[in-house]
Amino acid sequence: MRSFINPFLAVILAGLLAACSSTPTEEDTSSTDTMGQNTQTTPTTPVERPKPSKPETSSIPLTAENFHNHPSNYDGTTDTRVIYFAFDSNTVPAAAFETLRAHAKYLKENPNAKVRLEGHADERGTREYNVALSERRSEAVQKFLRVQGVSASQLETVAYGEEKPAAFGHTEMDWAKNRRVVLNYTAGRP
Amino acid sequence: MMRIINVRSVARAAAVMALTMLALGARAELMIQITEGRVDAVPIAVVPFAGAADAPENISDIVRADLHRSGQFKTLEPGDMLSRPTSADQLSFRDFRVLNQEYVVVGSMQKTDSGAYEVRYGLYDVAREKQLITESYRPPASQLRDVAHAISDRIYEELTGIQGAFSTKILYVTFNRGTQNPYQLQYADADGARVRTIVRSREPIMSPSWSPDGSKIAYVSFEKDGLPKIYVHDLASAQRRVVAQYKGINGAPAWSPDGQRLAVTLSKGGNPDIYSLDLNSGALEQLTDHYGIDTEPRWMPDGEHLVFTSSRSGGPQIYELDINDKSTRRVSFEGAYNARPDVTPDGRYLVYVHRRNGSFHVGVQDLQRGTFDIVTKTDMDESPSVAPNGSMIIYGTQYRGTGVLQAVSIDGRVKVELPSKEGEVREPAWSPFL
């Protein structure tokens, strides 16, 4: 029996390797690499340094731990449609407040607009329990928008648990990208 | 001397299969490999049956693989046999005794004029030189695999005293990223053969569960509008209906032992609680009412109790609920994460996901002796499901970053891998006896 199985396993492994190589790799957090040196070397005679093309927020190293609260994930407008969460948490991160206020403003000004708040969890733990955890995240965002005065009739929540990951790897950073609520406009998209 | 056996279960399983030939697209075939066996596995020689190599299904190969995969037996490779008898009168016990074999199976399969096959075999005790079983079957070609599994069941029961579970099915969800319908609900024979697709969808499919008679399944599907609904699906007719589509979570269906009710998780009351849904009347009864998460119910065999996952003490733990007075008691105490219980048919063991040092394993709690043991070495384990004879647990885990199924015996001594050729395989549910 064994002699039949090994070639099969080889095929599986080959398939896996192929799948991996075609998978888009994680975005490089290139802004973190040289940051340390740059801030240290303060020239004594500053002569018209070019303004940083990106806001200073990008100088905060992006890690799996601060991913949910990292300013680079939120532009403060309705263009941002994903809110991230810390591990085992359903607290809306402070960095997302301005973005969510922009959505609230838009929804109040556009009563026909409707948004579905899609809650997600990372892959750790059991599936239905993760569905329940992800529901708490979508409810936290719903509560935030309600407090801002958005009508309940414009909001709907759905909990997907770990079933629809955004990142398919199995690292801490992949998990950080998957713990999220997606604001999915089902009517009156901004 | 041969008995003609009309095995009802074989005919029924075959009928279910024939009627549920749905769209057969890409099939994620399961392959099976034993990674850890028992040191005291019983040596048995299944000699190639006469005519087996020319038949559409090689019955002796299937029986040998079945017995091997159970981990209870150490099967002899045909190449190592000194002789290859195909009937009792050709059998020389000495040839198997010198190879330390305890049992030998010999047989034949022959095509008849009607196109059916005449399958005969015998099981013999080598030391006592005694015939233990002799049977014959006359299946059409389409039922040869069913007959092979029925023979495996008969041999397994004769030698272990436990009903064999080789004629059962495994229901599971597959995920193939980048395809039009990445989520599929499929089932296959317990050895991974004869894969059938039941539902395919762009949206997630979750939590498949068998009715106690094996004729129906329940599952959660987010198809069409992206919202979760619980379906009850009749396998023979492929007819299905939505039984729950409330606001919020509609999840974790589990069939009651009498087949009349589903325990489900609904969050329509503001947070996830467990309800009992009467499938005849549609009546809904709330069984838990707690601000924490209550989910993943499973019925105890008595039909009067449920075990479920609850966060009422902080992290997830296993609780038991009396459905009559709705009282609950905590059952799991080891560690900070215990979830998604299943129960053995005799009600003695709980099987659930247990986190230790950041890894998720399958643990077995002996409710009689009060002991708890981790039985897997893999570390992203989920969805354990117990075989109907209580011998093995099938579960989902990750192998090199992709979802695969594995099986382990209740005592942790036998481990079997079921890697998939393509895509992820997850959430296995072992059928009842069919």
Automatic annotation (TrEMBL), chain A:
Task: Keyword check for Lipoprotein, yes or no.
Answer: yes
Q: Where is the signal peptide?
A: 1-18
The record's subcellular location field reads: Cell outer membrane
Matching entries from PROSITE patterns are given as: OMPA_2 (PS51123), PROKAR_LIPOPROTEIN (PS51257)
Tell me which GO cellular component terms the UniProt record holds.
cell outer membrane
User: Known InterPro entries for this protein?
Assistant: Bact_OuterMem_StrucFunc (IPR050330), OMP_bac (IPR006664), OmpA-like (IPR006665), OmpA-like_sf (IPR036737), Pal (IPR039001), Pal_lipo_C (IPR014169)
List compositional bias (Low complexity) regions by residue number. 31-46
Lipoprotein: present as a keyword of the record? yes
Annotated GO biological processes are: cell division
Q: Per UniProt, which keywords does this protein have?
A: Cell cycle, Cell division, Cell outer membrane, Lipoprotein, Membrane, Palmitate, Signal
Q: Where is this region: Disordered?
A: 23-74
Query: What is its membrane topology?
Result: Lipid-anchor
OmpA-like domain span: 72-189
What binding partners and quaternary form does the record give? Answer: The Tol-Pal system is composed of five core proteins: the inner membrane proteins TolA, TolQ and TolR, the periplasmic protein TolB and the outer membrane protein Pal. They form a network linking the inner and outer membranes and the peptidoglycan layer.
Name the PANTHER family on file.
LIPOPROTEIN YIAD-RELATED (PTHR30329:SF21), STATOR ELEMENT OF FLAGELLAR MOTOR COMPLEX (PTHR30329)
Its family remark reads: Belongs to the Pal lipoprotein family.
Q: What does this protein do?
A: Part of the Tol-Pal system, which plays a role in outer membrane invagination during cell division and is important for maintaining outer membrane integrity.
- Name-wise, this protein is Peptidoglycan-associated lipoprotein
Organism equals Alloalcanivorax marinus
Recorded name of the encoding gene = pal
